[in-house]
Specification:
The chain is of the alpha+beta class. Helix content is 54%, strand content 15%.
Length: 349
């Protein structure tokens, strides 16, 4: 990331991050959702950084920074930005029709690609089935988990035909046949509008098909997918370590070794993250998977340490330390889950 780009990104982030921090308690208590934060990021032009994958470091910086104030916002910003990444690979007409509203945050983006990544990794088949009809597709099946499922959102999903054909398509969340399940009562991330869906014979015009080659599509988007996920893990971990650093006294001194070790690991991980993000096509997939796994594990360890050191504040709902502890509990199950990351890494040994 050049000094000029970093300065511009940081200036815009300064204007947004204070608002994210101020809204974090309301987001955590389900009194607000992330749409205003996504719109603020879009209004500053922050979702347009790194499109095309040549240098993702500025976008990593955006997601990492907002995640220090609210993992809910960092996570939703990742999901929204990945939808933009997918659409940037679409035919020109679809890009022109959909990207402007996504870039500015006027419309939210939903990434529902987890099943596609699992299929390419060899961990199961995409449950969404597609048949060709009337110059387009008809898609039926479940989406186990998606986020930013707000009214008028645009969703990108994978589907497979009975003949082995594969597709990546953009679907309006309000399209006929899309059923949105009642959102679960999530811990810390309810503001992200995360839930499951079911598609029943949903018509997808041919112009909304982004790709007919799922493995090649996944290969193109996976570096950004993993690096930007690593960014929100890094953000919440760094915030927790800052909180742990503020603890003082003889009891806190008993954890000096653990605190110093985690700080050193965090610094080393951030150096790898930004080095990889500046040249996202160069690291191996194994290196990206390992970085993503390490960052999620460290975030969990950092939030547990912070909760331990701040005492009762770590247990009291409504405090930043408690919020981060609950937010980080999500990371081991976020797709790719810790189990999937560990399994995939064994394939490179």
């Amino acid at each position: 990331m050049t000094a000029a780009v970093a300065k511009n990104v940081d200036a815009a982030l300064d204007r947004v991050s204070d608002e994210v921090a101020a809204r974090a308690p309301a987001l955590d208590s389900d009194q607000a959702d992330v749409r205003a934060d996504l719109a603020a990021l879009g209004a500053e032009g922050l979702f347009s950084t790194g499109i095309g994958g040549t240098d993702l470091a500025p976008m990593v910086r955006v997601i990492e920074r907002v995640a220090t104030s609210s993992l809910a916002v960092g996570f939703s910003a990742w999901a929204h930005r990945m939808t933009i990444e997918y659409l940037s690979l679409a035919p020109e007409a679809l890009r022109a029709a959909q990207l402007p509203a996504l870039m500015t945050g006027r419309r939210t983006g939903v990434t529902a690609m987890a099943a596609g990544l699992k299929q390419v990794a060899g961990l199961g088949e995409v449950p969404l089935r597609a048949v060709t009809r009337h110059g387009g597709l008809r898609i039926t099946g479940p989406i186990r988990w998606a986020s930013n499922v707000f009214p008028n959102a645009l969703m990108v999903l994978p589907a497979c035909g009975a003949d082995g054909a594969t597709y990546v398509a953009a679907v309006d969340i309000n399209a006929h046949g899309v059923r949105i399940d009642r959102p679960p009562n999530l811990m810390a991330l309810k503001a992200t509008a995360s839930t499951s869906l079911y598609l029943e014979n949903v018509h997808v015009p041919i112009e909304n098909v982004i790709s007919t080659d799922l493995p090649s599509f996944v290969a193109r988007i996976r570096p950004a997918f993993l690096l930007l996920q690593t960014a929100f893990c890094s953000g919440v971990g760094a915030a927790a370590l800052d909180g742990a650093q503020s603890a003082r006294g003889v009891l806190a001194d008993q954890f000096t070794t653990e605190r110093v070790e985690l700080i050193q690991r965090n610094q080393a991980q951030r150096e790898r993250l930004y080095a990889f993000a500046s040249r996202p096509s160069e690291p191996s997939i194994a290196d990206l998977l390992r970085l993503r796994l390490d960052a999620a594990v460290l975030a969990g360890q950092a939030t547990r340490l912070e909760a331990t050191l701040v005492g009762g504040a770590g247990y009291a709902v409504g405090t930043a330390a408690n919020r981060r502890f609950r937010e980080a509990a999500f990371l081991p199950i976020q797709s790719p889950s810790e189990g999937q990351l560990r399994w995939e890494l064994t394939q490179y040994e």
